[in-house]
Amino acid sequence: MTKGDMERQVGQEHRVRADRHPLPEYRAIGRRVRRKDGLEKASGYAVYTSDVQLPGMLHMRVLTCPYPHARIETMDTARAQALPGVRAILRYDDPELPEKADLSGHFGQAGQPHEPVLDRCGYWQGMPMGIAIAADTEEVAREALKLVEIVWEQRPFNLDPVEALKAGAPLTNPESQPSGNFILPFMHEKKVTHGDIEKGFKEADRTIEFTMRRDQDTWVGPERPCGVFRWNGDYPEAWLKHQRPHLAKRQIADYFKVGVSQVTVHCLYQGASFGGWSQMGLNMQPNIIAGILAKRTGRPVRWQFTRREDFCGAGMDNARYHVRVGFKNNGEITAIHATSWFSREGLSHTDHFVENSKIINIVQESNGAICNIFTGWAIRCEQNMNCYCFSAVMNHVAEALKMDPVELALINDGCEGHAMADITGWKTERGFKDRDSLRECLEAGKKAMDWDKKWHLPGAGKLANGRMHGLGMSWAHEWGDSGGSAAIAIRIERDDGTARVLGMRCDNGVCAETAYCQIAADELGFRYEDVQYRPFEEAGFTPMTPDSSTNLAVNGWAVRNAARQLKKKILEVATMPRITERPEMGYIPPFEGYKPEDLDIKESVVYVKKDPSKRLTMAGLVRPAFFMGKMDVGSTEPLFAYGWQNQQGAYDIKGPPGPRPIFVRQAHFVEVEVDPETGGIEVTRVVNANDVGKAVNPDAVEGQQYGGSVMGVSRARTEEVVYCPRTGVVLNGNLIDYRINTMLDCGPIGTRIIETGMGYGPYGSVGVGEDVASVVPFAFYAAVHNAVGKWVDLPATPDKVLKALGKI
Amino acid sequence: MKPGYLCPYCEASFEAHETLKAHVVARHGTEPLPRPQGLINLTVNGGKYEFEVEPNVTLYTLIHDRMGLTGVKMFCDRGACGSCTVILDGRPVLSCMTLAIECDGTSIETAEGIAAKGHPLIEAYVTHHAMQCGYCTPGFVVTAKALLDRNPDPTEEEIREALSGNLCRCGTYPQHPLAVTEAARRLQGGSK
Predict the structure, then answer these.
(1) Shortest Cα–Cα distance, A38 to chain B (Å)
(2) Residue B151 phi/psi, 5° resolution?
(3) Minimum mean pLDDT range among A20-24, A263-267, A543-547, A670-674
């Protein structure tokens, strides 16, 4: 690879500035194309990990802790062992098991309590622990588990982070954290300060304080966590429902002390991955156990959580907040002091003020506690705490000033402490056009919602049907254009000149593989129909997905880079004599006498730019190139190229101006009707306005807007994992009692796509998958307030609404 | 998939129990053999099948695990999500809540069968992106097919009502009525 080629692999400068080499013409990109996975999925032929069946396969069940905090005092497995059909049992005290093992799938997660492969202690209800049983059928394994006689030591537990931090609170995990329940937040310090908070409050005309809380919700992925493990001699082979299969491969190699190249990991279609434990160690724990039992029995071993067990894998939104805000009478916010109490990771709750406002003076304090609930991990997505805090501040200030929140948004929009109007230079220096993304989103959304006509002061919207009417708005930047690495290759089929993008299966629903084909088609000059993403399932070339986050901005670059390399090779083949294994046969290039730069490709046809009548289809080109006119397969090198991308992370902001100030925005609008008698909330309309920079696949963008809205409304209105305060166990661990939205639970959703080209992804794009579901709940939060005139914590269940109205 | 049946008199092997019965009557002059417990006959996507099933085997397990038809999916595992829906004698039923042994003599249709017949629902679902991860999609297609079978020209409200028992965590709901409406139009001879 030449230095120029290397530079084309989108080096550092591209990660922090606009796409400098977009295409002059888009043919597949931006078009509504037939999705590549559509027929397979609609007809039932798409295969997921949970569909895998292998000859001789055993079924494994792992004990999950029935209490929030308990230790096995004694365990007798004799009766289970004697049950016909039981083939192997693995106990926590098995001599083969190491005391600790790194089962984490993300960043190591030092200090997490699940490090033993099978712990003797359970630190939350649902934690896999103690014993695993492999049997001929799942029913036998389940029955055998019931026959295991365990004497439990039940321990006191913590469910609430505020209570867990009080003096005298029981220890959540006395084994790994005997000194107390306090933990530092993930990825930032306990106290983070920007600017001068005291000065900010002095500059304020008014100050308000408020508290809010968000209780636990969870992911409810349709395909429950599962896996199949088999040994082929020295070679482990695993089928994983996992969001980071390439990291899981490394873990398997590490645990079983084999080379990574000995491990085969299959990643099939993923029955959704919204984060949660589909990406972390707790998912890998049963896979490793299955690997141990597969080795002992010489048979493949399959495992899968039950839906109830899956419900114990909750998210990270369990937090309480106290916020103090200073602002001027004109709406300018001058100071924010936000304190949170959270269980587990606790990502930042004030980053969004830095990233997309002109607010300078910010203090964030984070009080983390480990509690006896699931370890907690981001579920679509880690920005939830940020979105909640940001939206709450904006809407509380708007309420205090009796100001339209749309107006307040435009007053405070900015970037890293600067007003948007003052940083047009930042945009142009980085190669972007100077467009006002938030204003464009707000105008599109307002128009779709008929906001100016419908909006009213909180509590003032009474409808003829007796209900209370509310409109809410929330906004943020788009963040799906950063953070990750990817490697992807493309090769040309020898027989017909079509292209095949090679990468790990990276489908969990965001239509990414189709988008990659659109990019490859336009970059190569091929027809969209002539490009396929036919993945090899094994985790080899590793795109950012199925990690999901920011996949387009990372993988899109990698596809584009590979395609540009490949196109160069194709044109070289078309014009240059080549060295072959049989020189006597020679090779006369079809465009002899021309240089590669004299040619181009369009609609899968190579042609001379100055004389398009001189043309050759790709099929015509590759046949002589590879077959030499005879059956001489392989006599010349394959037409193959690879590309990669390391995309600058979003979390590396070092202070204004950071390496990648974010200019693209999104705004979401929710309309509700609240029944004052029942407290029920009907969502009558949702409008999403997303500046996605460049919509590579408009259908996929709309799909994410629809899906994010449905999930966002669902999380805001009904979703909460309810724990029994007395026993600490989950009370609603099923899809009947934990209510996710059905088709009847969300009103019409209007989608608006804005394309300012100000994303850091290829062609100015930015991803949309994570953010809608993260922001919409807080537009709902504002809409409910606008209806009832009171703030109602999420989920805004009818009992909370009635309580806010003073009716109960 | 089809168990072998041995003649108790001459140990001749037969693939189907009906064939064995005919054999013992013709060759050995006996009365027809009693039907073995757990033997069921099913028509699945137009094909005739015979299975021996334990009483606790669900229709989902039979179709998914034994027949290898992956269009039925297990999402909720207790009759709350519709992902395992099949059409049983014209009615959409949840195969995870249906015992296989109770389905003797019935006709069953899955997403694979609907696709094999070239039903316009499939292409309409592809065209309208009425899917994301796709795990629940076959269940929607089957439920929609059952709707169109009994109501060839449903309103949007009727479509939403019919599909409201199917859960989609990806939130593809707005796209389904578009797909079903287009399929209905195509079935009635209209163009796209």
Answers:
(1) 5
(2) -145, 90
(3) A543-547
Q: Is residue B96 part of a domain?
A: no
Mean pLDDT of A670-679: 98
- Is the pLDDT at A5 greater than 80, yes or no? no
Instruction: Return all residues near A454 (Cβ < 8 A) that are at least 6 apart.
Output: A469, A471, A671
Q: Is B68 near chain A, with CB under 8 Å?
A: yes
Q: How far apart are CA A647 and CA A390, in angstroms?
A: 26
Give me the residues paired with residue A785 across strands.
Answer: none
**Which residue range is the domain that position B11 belongs to?**
1-36
Q: Do B126 and A272 touch (CB under 8 A)?
A: no
Which residue's structure tokens are 């919409």?
Answer: A776
Contact state of A44 with B56 under an 8 Å Cβ cutoff: no
pLDDT digits (tens, 9 = 90+) for A510-536: 999 999 999 999 999 999 999 999 887
A-B contacts (CB, under 8 Å): 176
* A639-648, A701-710, A786-795: least confident range: A639-648
Q: Report the C-alpha gap between A502 and A499 in whole angstroms.
A: 9
Total structural domains within chain B? 2
List residues bridging with A475 in a β-sheet: A667
Query: Among B65, B87, B133, which would you mutate to test the A interface (most chain A Cβ atoms within 10 Å of its Cβ)?
Result: B133
Confidence at A542, pLDDT banded by 50, 70, 90? confident
Residue B72 belongs to some domain of the structure: no
Rounded mean pLDDT, A788-792: 98
- For helices A551-575 and A618-627, the axis angle rounded to 10 degrees is 60
Interface confidence (ipTM) of the complex: 0.94
Question: What pLDDT was estimated at residue A634?
Answer: 43
Low-confidence ranges of chain B (pLDDT < 70): 1-3, 191-192
- Lowest mean pLDDT, pick from A275-279, A301-305, A312-316, A674-678: A275-279
Q: Is A710 on the interface with B (CB under 8 A)?
A: yes
Phi-psi region of A36 (alpha: psi -120 to 50; beta: other; left: phi over 0): alpha
pLDDT (mean) for A235-256: 88
pLDDT (tens digit, 9 = 90+) per residue, A729-780? 999 999 999 999 999 999 999 999 999 999 999 999 999 989 999 999 999 9
Q: B156 pairs with which residues across the strands? A: none
Is pLDDT above 80 for A548? no
SS3 at position A685 = strand
Closest CA to A432 of A695, A767, A661, A696: A661
Domain assignment of residue B101, yes or no? no
- C-beta separation of B176 from A708 below 8 A: no
* B95 within domain boundaries: no
Q: How far apart are CA A460 and CA A794, in angstroms?
A: 22
Candidate from A40, A45, A707 with C-beta closest to B132: A707
Question: A714 contacts in B (CB within 8 Å)?
Answer: 171
A274 CB neighbours in chain B (<8 A) are 169
Provide, as residue numbers in chain A, all residues whose Cβ is less than 8 Å from the Cβ of B172.
Answer: 703, 706-707
Rounded to an integer, what distance in angstroms lies between the CA atom of residue A541 and that of residue A559? 11
Residue by residue, DSSP assigns A508-527 as SSS-HHHHHHHHHHHHHT--
Domains, chain A, ranges and CATH?
A: 3-30+483-647 (3.30.365.10), 49-155+219-311 (3.90.1170.50), 319-481+650-804 (3.30.365.10)
**Listed residue (B170, B140, B76) closest to A272, CA to CA:** B170
- Nearest residue in chain A measured CA to CA from B157: A744
Question: Chain B contact for A267, CB < 8 A?
Answer: no
**pTM for the full predicted model:** 0.94
Gap between the Cα atoms of A706 and B180, Å rounded = 17
Q: Is B181 on the interface with A (CB under 8 A)?
A: no
Residue B1 has a pLDDT of 45
